[in-house]
Design the sequence.
């Protein structure tokens, strides 16, 4: 049943990432993924599911999310209302238990992949409330006095953007992988996958310009892979020649359509100022 | 062997636990990793290290511990015949690299050295660590022989770099030994939570519903109330620049923790001491000032005031009119401070300097008196005390 996860047609995975996923799948441990925004953390879960041919359940965590919502919710208010109206379904409490994503994943007939996206957005105690569920892959429904057990241990992929630190007890139960920002070579393969047949010079120039922007000191939000892909899409749509990206001196020219790379007006301002200073220094 | 490695990690400050060690062993047993040092390195890291800031420490311990052990992996790949070496080298080196090797003494020299090393390794099978040291020459390419390191493995394959990952220590700048994580800070700031119901009514009010239903003779009457939210209001005043530069990190952490913990948080900056004006944006500090009087007028006394500063300055900056290092102040800093403490009964001063050093600086003692003894060190424990002091009003008994 277990295939090994390798990078797919549309997703380039580094060997250490592949191994992390495979270890998590083999041992049935949750895999915690961290990394800069836009390095494909959420995408990973989708690709793992596609690569292993398993169904995926996505639980997107928000600042108001409670751990209980992932398990189930008891809709007491609508039951109360139904009882007033004399509905027949009131008699069975099960009609008012709303299943959460975790339950759905536990109940899946095939081994599933469960994505818990951006766990750091939730309250600081959120991960602690899921310890037993992730450890034993079971939880207890108090209203119906029934124990829900996972039919198959799901592959759990958890992403975090480091907005909050996660509790130690939670970290101990996970494998951890930090997606590094790809080096130029990997980046080339990534772009290749998304824009096949891109002209070699254009790609080289675009990557060069991209890493120059990224290395500008003091940027608040460095452009990431997803921004690079957007930018290249724009460049292609505008049909710009590679020469337009080059300029006579890289430090003195602003790459075209840089709005796709820099998302923060202070960064744009800083970048323009630096280029201006470099020009004057001549 | 692994136990010693594990203890080495703990000694270096990686908070790995026994459970994690067991899961690493489980993964090894399940043959997740192939027999290579590289894969073992990755596997160990994902199982034992849960924070990218600790990657560098892991790298260091790994390099130290497995400096000699890589040969164990190599030995598993059986004895390496010279032919194999040669064919491997020929197959993998690029034209350019070949030329470089040529310039360093040619093929034969390289192979000879490799063979020598190999022989040496057999002889010193037990104790030697010279075969692959930090700058060792190995059949897998080298840092010592060829300055760039020889690329091994076919192009685009798994193992691209001859410089071993853990020796490159690529995670160096992510490491920091900060005492206070924002998580701890937030836990401490929680003490200040004060819940109040405001906003849209979207929660069932059970007591209200029961009462209303009873009044309605059993006919259900749902009552909703707003959710409880943290309603505490905080004014954060931060000393910036000068001697505070040493404490930027801890102040940033406090600031980010406070911002996510308190909904009503306003912050202002000052330099060294509080005078007649403050500013909110350091880049526009001279253009966009707020006068302290305005602050006193705008915020009512139920705001809690937290001042962060090292209170280290010359005493006349506090007591003398015109004592400010930056401008002429008509009234002394002490006068402004007294106004502030009079208006805001709940006020604390957090000092990032260690508590035992406070006595050495006279100005710290003066500020301490001015804030009625409510000066606390910027540590978890100090923050805890400060938050407790903020909950009751009036000067603390020192």
Sequence:
């Amino acid at each position: 049943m277990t295939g090994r996860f390798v990078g797919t047609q549309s997703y380039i995975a580094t060997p250490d990432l592949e191994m992390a996923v495979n270890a998590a799948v083999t041992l049935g441990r949750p895999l915690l993924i961290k990394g800069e925004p836009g390095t494909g953390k959420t995408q990973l879960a989708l690709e793992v599911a596609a690569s292993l041919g398993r169904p995926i359940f996505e639980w997107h965590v928000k600042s108001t999310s409670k751990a209980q919502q992932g398990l189930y919710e008891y809709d007491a208010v609508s039951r109360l209302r139904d009882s007033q109206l004399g509905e027949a379904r009131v008699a069975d409490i099960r009609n008012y238990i709303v299943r959460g994503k975790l339950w759905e994943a536990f109940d899946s007939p095939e081994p599933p992949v469960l994505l818990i996206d951006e766990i750091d957005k939730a309250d600081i105690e959120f991960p602690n409330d899921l310890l037993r569920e992730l450890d034993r892959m079971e939880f207890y429904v108090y209203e119906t006095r029934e124990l829900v057990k996972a039919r198959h241990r799901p592959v759990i992929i958890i992403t975090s953007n480091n907005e909050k630190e996660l509790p130690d007890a939670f970290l101990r139960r996970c494998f951890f992988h930090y997606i590094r920002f790809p080096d130029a070579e990997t980046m080339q393969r990534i772009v290749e996958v998304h824009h096949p047949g891109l002209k070699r010079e254009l790609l080289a120039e675009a990557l060069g310009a991209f890493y120059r922007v990224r290395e500008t000191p003091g940027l608040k939000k460095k452009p990431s892979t997803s921004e690079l892909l957007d930018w290249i899409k724009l460049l292609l749509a505008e049909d710009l020649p590679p020469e337009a990206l080059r300029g006579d001196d890289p430090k003195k020219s602003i790459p075209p359509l840089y709005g796709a790379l820099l998302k923060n007006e202070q960064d744009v301002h800083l970048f323009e100022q630096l280029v201006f200073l470099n020009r004057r220094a001549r | 062997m692994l136990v010693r490695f594990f203890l080495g990690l703990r000694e270096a400050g990686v908070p790995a636990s026994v459970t994690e060690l067991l899961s690493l062993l489980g993964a090894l047993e399940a043959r997740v990793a192939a027999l290579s040092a590289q894969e073992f390195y990755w596997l160990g890291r994902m199982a034992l290290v849960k924070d990218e800031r600790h990657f560098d420490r892991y790298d260091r311990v790994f390099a130290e511990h497995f400096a000699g052990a890589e040969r164990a992996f190599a030995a598993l790949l059986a004895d390496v015949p010279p032919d194999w070496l040669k064919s491997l080298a020929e197959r993998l080196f690029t034209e350019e690299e070949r030329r470089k090797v040529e310039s360093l003494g040619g093929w034969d020299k390289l192979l000879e050295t490799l063979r020598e090393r190999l022989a040496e390794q057999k002889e010193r099978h037990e104790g030697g660590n010279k075969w692959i040291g930090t700058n060792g020459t190995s059949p897998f390419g080298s840092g010592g022989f060829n300055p760039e390191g020889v690329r091994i493995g076919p192009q685009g394959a798994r193992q691209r770099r001859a410089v071993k990952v853990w020796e490159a220590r690529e995670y160096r700048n992510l490491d920091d030994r900060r005492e206070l994580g924002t998580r701890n800070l937030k836990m401490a700031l929680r003490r200040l939570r004060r819940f109040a119901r405001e906003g849209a009514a979207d929660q069932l009010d059970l007591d209200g519903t029961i009462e209303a239903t009873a009044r309605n003779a059993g006919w259900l009457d749902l009552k909703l109330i707003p959710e409880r939210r943290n309603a505490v209001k905080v004014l954060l005043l931060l000393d910036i620049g000068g001697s505070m530069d040493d404490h930027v990190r801890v102040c940033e952490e406090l600031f980010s923790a406070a911002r996510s913990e308190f909904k009503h948080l306003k912050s202002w900056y000052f330099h060294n001491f509080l005078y007649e004006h403050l500013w909110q944006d350091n880049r526009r500090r001279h253009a966009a000032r707020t006068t302290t009087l305005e602050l006193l007028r705008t915020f009512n006394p139920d705001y809690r005031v937290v001042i962060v500063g090292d209170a280290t300055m010359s005493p006349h900056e506090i007591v003398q009119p015109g004592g400010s290092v930056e401008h002429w102040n008509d009234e002394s800093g002490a006068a402004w401070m007294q106004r502030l403490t009079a208006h805001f009964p709940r006020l604390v001063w957090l000092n990032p300097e260690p508590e035992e050093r406070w006595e050495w600086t006279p100005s710290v003692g003066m500020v301490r008196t001015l804030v009625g003894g409510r000066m606390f060190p910027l540590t978890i424990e100090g923050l805890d005390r400060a938050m407790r002091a903020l909950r009751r009003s009036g000067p603390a008994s020192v």
Notes: The CA atoms of residues 171 and 195 of chain B lie 42 Å apart. Chain B touches chain A through 35 residues (CB under 8 Å). Residues 76-80, 121-164, 172-180 of chain B have pLDDT under 50 and may be disordered. The longest helix of chain B spans residues 106-123.
